[in-house]
Amino acid sequence: MKLKALKKLRNIGGGLASSTNNSNRYQATNNLPPLLFHPCHGENIRLMNGGARAQRVDSYCKGIVFSSRPVRINEKIMLRLADVSNQWSGVVRLGFTSVDPRTHTHGLPKYACPDLTSKPGFWAKAMSERYAEPGCVFFYYVTAGGDVHFGLNNEEKGIFFSGVDVSRPLWCLVDIYGNATALEIVQPQPAPLPVLRPTNEELERWTRPALAALTINAPPPHAQQPPLPLPAPQPQPPALAVKYHTHCVFSPLLLHPRVRGRNVTVSPDRTVAARLEGEFCNGYVFGQRPLRLGERLVVQVLSRCSLYVGGLAFGLTSCDPSRLTPAELPDDADLLLDRPEYWVLAKDVARTPAPGDELSFKINGTGAVEFSRNGGAAQVLMHVDASLDLWPVLDVFGGTGRIRVLGVTSELTPGCAAPPPVRAGSEHSLPVPARPSQPLPPPPAELQPAAAADCAVCFERASDAALYSCGHVCMCYCCAVQWKARGGAVCPICRAPIRDVIRLYRS
Length: 507
What we know:
Structural class: mainly beta
Shape: globular
Order of helices and strands: HEEEEEEEEEEEHEEEEEEEEEEEEEEEHE
Radius of gyration: 31 Å
Largest sheet: 8 strands, antiparallel
Number of helices: 3
Strand content: 25-35%
């Protein structure tokens, strides 16, 4: 009788197990072995440290590796960029595959993209070259909906790509390509043991004798001490004082009242921008009017968030913010450079922000944007087209949590008209920039650009290469290709990232 009952229970358990969703099989197991690299890998890969490190020993390709086991849904694959070379361009390709690595008996191709991704069961995408720094730790994982998320140094970056089929087991697919020459798998730290706290019944049982003793030995009512007064509420900290620009007389330049990033709030007086708690990106704010030549915009850092890396981003654009919608503002400021308007951006101008830092930005007559921190020596941050009306844009990003726009100084360059008077009671109580009444004087000889026929790098060959996507022609094709191959290269004129080099042929 007992044997029949056991068999019946076993059949019921088997029926429950077989009815479980297929994707939950990879999500419910917690006692999986540590993640390592699979012994099946590319021709130029050598495994070290028991399979936790993969090193490419030759060339820039044939560096495809897989995980030693299928990964779970939402399981973070953490990788450290252990070694970087400056001889190549390109960086790691990250993805997944539903094809068992053991089936690659005839060797692997040179590249994951497109040699493998063009086949069914393979998904991968290249990581941005600006993340290719030695020692950086990045992670990625796939969700139940087939979206692959990416992050860097414990900072979530968002969706990397989509469309992964999660109905079958998935192995990690990594192509150690180009500048990346070695990767190490970082094992996740074990979760801390839960703290066991006594229940309410246990607390009552333990404290009942002590309460009874206090009741017996309590003093008479007239001898009891009066209750302690409640502590006074702590006052809010005052606004940070201006330290490095006390000699300046500021004119207001308020933030735009309507258009801003989805993760930032603006104070009622439109001078303070604060990013929402728990968010690290999409903190865009715009000036309500363009920044005139010679004006110095001063911004004060009010708070710092130590949970995230990165700092304030500053840029200038010919796009009137009133024509934008918050939905058009991307999480990554680099994507703004692909818009049809004129955009120039510099990220991490305050990489290590500190409360009280005062950052100033000024466009001089030659189009050079001067940057200064805490009243220090000015340095050229980027170059812009000074003939356009340029609105300032700030991205309260990463470690910068809250900023205050102190205003602009009235340091107009020669030839610029003074601002018109402000109409009291006007809806837009800020002056509209006036065009120069006379042409600006030519810049000094040492600041004038080189002749169009000279390469700005070698000064020997003609400038016959256009940089995409900014379009500047300032280098010969040979130097431009070498400059782009370094990784993270930017245009020497406007500091825009170089996405491609186009050779020009003059008639």
